[in-house]
């Protein structure tokens, strides 16, 4: 899960009466309300987001690329809006009121989103409109309160209780991941295991997060009387923008006169203090390092989109239980809780014992490599997954396979189109689809069939972008032909497709998983229907008013089957043929990519925040917070562009992202090589209160700040 910037030193200028504490400790009672609020809010957000991609595909009937694009557009908006939330809190309403008002917006968004998932409410256009409106409101709600809640929690502590404040942030972060783990396990269960309105219950899967957000808001308001509420003190981000604008404007105005300054920001000295200008210089040096960072988030945030879609085409059977594809995301949050102490107490000390200088920027670059390796692993998995997928025909093409139900082998040739290389044995699985070039939308062709030395010609008509089965069976005049349309697209929710061919002398009726099949006598073929994955050993087949039990066996994830019904010694039997292979790559093969991406997150995200905040003055922490969150936003924009514009096969897209991140990590390493670590606390020694910008020695020190060896400078 993403780490959020935790401001703890701002907004405590006034000293209201001390609030009650927990069990006589230095922990204010008010933080209990804040921690519970954060747990419920994160449950709400990640629970809704866990099922979002499948909702787009299965409920709104969007394709994978559009679903991925909208998912990442929403994620991006969630990380653009924190800038607006910080502006409102610091300049207008204060943190407390901002959290309450935007939480109400948040709740409304969840309710609208839940209503949009009820099939009886309007038509498909209504569902789309309600869904988009709900997501926009949620994005403004969650993004707007993101920069406020943690900082508001830090405001509750007395200034001297720094250790308690630090532990609070650890507890706060644990509540984030606890909410994430539980929600990504529970909401997919609500979606898939609870049936409503005749299908998956998305209304419930979105409704429960809405209830949790209502609880979060109520709990936060309930603690109102205990909070220390600092008034808004002005937005430093706005002040920084004004200072930069002033410097650019003054430099532009004086370009004709050849005037020079040591740094372009020095052009703002006539309106802004040298301390503020020096602080902005320090922040800008860090923000420049942020430029390559969105590529990491472009990979990281695909866990909820592309990786979830990959999971839908894998085998999810763990023996005792069936995992849902959207539940796999919980592995990231779970691994975070495990990896953080392992890295802090094990990995980093061991690396130090090897006399390797593991600086923050080196950790971040290593985290990028881990994320790239995760997508390398995802590429390998995707290649294996694709082996069971039938590549659909393109424009001007059709697919054809042969089902031989005749007596003896057959040799099939379609002159001018395709020839099946080997004789096709009776009642065996088809050899696989052959691709026919139609050179147009439709094409009439004649199939030449040889069976037991007898030639038969079958006139056939093919339509582009369609898959067919040529069903051959024995008749009075030799081999008879029947061209039927196939379903070759794998189910995105692990269902199996099946159809029946009636080789019995009378009509047959079957019911499988609540689906009715009617197969007429004389090799009639039923359409493909999707049924739940599972074993079907006692299916009832009605023939002439007599019930015959039929064993279909295990209908596995993503497969497509054809059953030929005929009379056997013990009644009607079903001979099974597999048209499309079942998902034979187990979802456990996704574990390595989750392990790698989580290791990358620990080294990149945590270290990145720690580094950023160690390199900037306390007054500029909110500026860096905005910059950090914007890197996440732009990372999602990158995915949106690639998903909509690249048009690559999925494995190629994964490989592209991995290669791009490797290239970006090299660029970042080069940039970091020229970065000099500083100690922002030295600013306090240079600028004593009430004596700002008067001593020339201070100016000299400012120029030396980034080079002074007393600052313990180190390279990446």
UniProtKB/TrEMBL annotation:
Protein name: Solute carrier family 15 member 2-like
Family per record: Belongs to the major facilitator superfamily. Proton-dependent oligopeptide transporter (POT/PTR) (TC 2.A.17) family.
Listed transmembrane segments: 69-87, 99-116, 128-149, 170-190, 202-227, 282-300, 333-353, 365-383, 623-642, 654-676
Entry keyword set: Membrane, Peptide transport, Protein transport, Symport, Transmembrane, Transmembrane helix, Transport
InterPro entries registered for this protein in UniProt: MFS_trans_sf, Oligopep_transport, POT_fam, PTR2_symporter_CS
Subunit structure: Interacts (via extracellular domain region) with trypsin.
Gene3D superfamilies: MFS general substrate transporter like domains
Membrane association type: Multi-pass membrane protein
Region Disordered, annotated ranges: 1-20
Organism, scientific name: Conger conger
Gene Ontology MF term list: oligopeptide transmembrane transporter activity; symporter activity
Gene Ontology, cellular component aspect: apical plasma membrane
Cellular location(s): Apical cell membrane
Main subcellular localisation: membrane
């Amino acid at each position: 899960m993403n780490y959020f910037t935790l401001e703890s030193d701002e907004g405590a200028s006034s000293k209201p009466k001390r609030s009650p504490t927990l069990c006589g400790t230095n922990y204010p009672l008010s933080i209990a309300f804040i921690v519970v609020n954060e747990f419920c809010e994160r449950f709400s957000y990640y629970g809704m987001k866990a099922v979002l991609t499948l909702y787009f595909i299965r409920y709104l009937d969007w394709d994978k690329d559009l679903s991925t694009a909208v998912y990442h557009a929403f994620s991006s908006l969630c990380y653009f809006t924190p800038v607006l939330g910080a502006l409102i809190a610091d300049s207008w309403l204060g943190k407390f009121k901002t959290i309450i008002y935007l939480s109400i917006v948040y709740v409304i968004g969840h309710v609208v989103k839940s209503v949009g998932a009820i099939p009886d409410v309007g038509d498909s256009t209504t569902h789309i409109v309600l869904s988009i409106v709900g997501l926009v409101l949620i994005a403004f709600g969650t993004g707007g309160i993101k920069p406020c809640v943690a900082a508001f929690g830090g405001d509750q502590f007395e200034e001297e209780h720094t250790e308690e404040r630090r532990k609070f942030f650890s507890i706060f972060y644990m509540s984030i991941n606890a909410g994430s783990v539980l929600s990504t396990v529970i909401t997919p269960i609500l979606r898939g295991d609870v049936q409503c309105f005749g299908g998956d219950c998305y209304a419930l899967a979105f409704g429960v997060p809405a209830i949790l957000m209502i609880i979060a808001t109520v709990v936060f308001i309930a603690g109102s009387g205990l909070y220390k509420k600092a008034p808004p003190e002005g937005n430093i981000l706005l002040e920084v923008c004004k200072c930069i604008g002033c410097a650019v404007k003054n430099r532009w105005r004086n370009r004709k006169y050849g005037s020079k300054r040591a740094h372009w920001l020095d052009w703002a000295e006539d309106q802004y203090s040298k301390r503020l200008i020096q602080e902005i210089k320090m922040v800008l040096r860090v923000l420049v390092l942020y430029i390559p960072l969105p590529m990491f988030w472009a990979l990281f945030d695909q866990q909820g989109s592309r990786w979830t879609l990959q999971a839908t085409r894998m085998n999810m059977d763990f023996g005792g239980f069936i995992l849902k594809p959207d539940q796999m995301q919980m592995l990231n949050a779970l691994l975070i809780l495990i990896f953080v102490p392992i890295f802090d107490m094990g990995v980093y000390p061991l690396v130090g014992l090897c006399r390797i200088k593991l600086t923050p920027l080196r950790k971040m670059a290593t985290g990028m490599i881990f994320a790239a390796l995760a997508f390398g692993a995802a590429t390998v998995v995707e290649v294996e997954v694709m082996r069971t997928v039938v590549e659909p025909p393109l424009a001007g093409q059709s697919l054809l396979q042969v089902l031989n139900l005749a007596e003896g082998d057959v040799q099939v040739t379609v002159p001018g189109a395709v020839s099946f290389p080997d004789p096709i044995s009776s009642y065996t699985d088809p050899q696989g689809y052959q691709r026919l070039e139609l050179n147009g939308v439709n094409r009439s062709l004649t199939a030449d069939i040889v069976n037991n030395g007898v030639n038969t010609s079958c006139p056939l008509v093919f339509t582009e972008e369609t898959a067919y089965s040529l069903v051959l069976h024995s008749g009075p005049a030799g081999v008879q032909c029947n061209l039927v349309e196939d379903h070759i697209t794998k189910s995105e929710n692990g269902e199996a497709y099946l159809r029946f061919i009636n080789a019995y002398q009378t009509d047959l009726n079957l019911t499988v998983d609540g689906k009715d099949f009617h197969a007429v006598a004389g090799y009639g073929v039923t359409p493909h229907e999707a049924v739940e994955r599972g074993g079907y050993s006692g299916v009832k087949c009605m023939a002439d008013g007599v019930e015959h039990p039929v064993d279909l066996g295990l209908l596995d994830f993503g497969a497509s089957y054809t059953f030929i019904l005929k009379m056997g010694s013990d009644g009607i039997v079903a001979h099974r043929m597999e048209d499309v292979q079942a998902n034979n790559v187990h979802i456990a093969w996704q574990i390595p990519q989750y392990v790698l991406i989580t290791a990358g997150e620990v080294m990149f995200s945590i270290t990145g925040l720690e580094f950023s905040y160690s390199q900037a003055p306390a007054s500029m922490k909110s500026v860096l917070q905005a910059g950090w969150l914007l890197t996440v936003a732009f990372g999602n924009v990158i995915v949106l562009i690639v998903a909509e514009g690249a048009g690559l096969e999925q494995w190629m897209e994964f490989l592209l992202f991995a290669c791009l991140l490797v290239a970006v990590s090299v660029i970042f390493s080069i940039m970091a090589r020229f970065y000099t670590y500083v100690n922002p606390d030295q600013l306090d020694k240079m600028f004593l209160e009430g004596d700002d910008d008067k001593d020339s020695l201070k100016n000299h020190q400012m120029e030396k700040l980034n080079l002074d060896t007393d600052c313990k400078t180190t390279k990446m």
